Write the structure tokens for this entry.
Amino acid sequence: MHLRFPLILIGIMLCTTITAGQAEIIRRVNPDGSITEYVPQKVPAAPRAEPQPGPCDQPPSTPNNYWWAKDAFQASLQRLRSAPNDPQCRAQALQLGRLYSQFSRTTTIGALYDETTLMNDINVITGSGTK
């Protein structure tokens, strides 16, 4: 009965020694000559999040007339408003705006929407216009 405590104590010491022998201990000598020992901790890596598709990841269909080009350009400006820092949205708005400008020049309506107006609209939406 009186041997139970020393046996438990010896068991704990052996378990501690065995588990400590498995750990990697790094010793560093300090400038003052003292030695610092530490055990590096393993931190699990965070799971990587899959990139979420943006509002402009799907290429739009190519408009084939003035009104379709106008509607497609207005829709691309709406998508650009929802993601003003997305370069894909900006490129799509620019591409569809150029088609819209081209159709407005070739119809009887005339050149209502030129490149300067197009870039002004895109710069206002994205906030990258000059002051």
In short: The chain has a mean pLDDT of 75. The two ends are 90 Å apart (CA to CA). Helices lie at 4-22, 66-82, 87-106, 115-126. The longest strand covers residues 26-29.
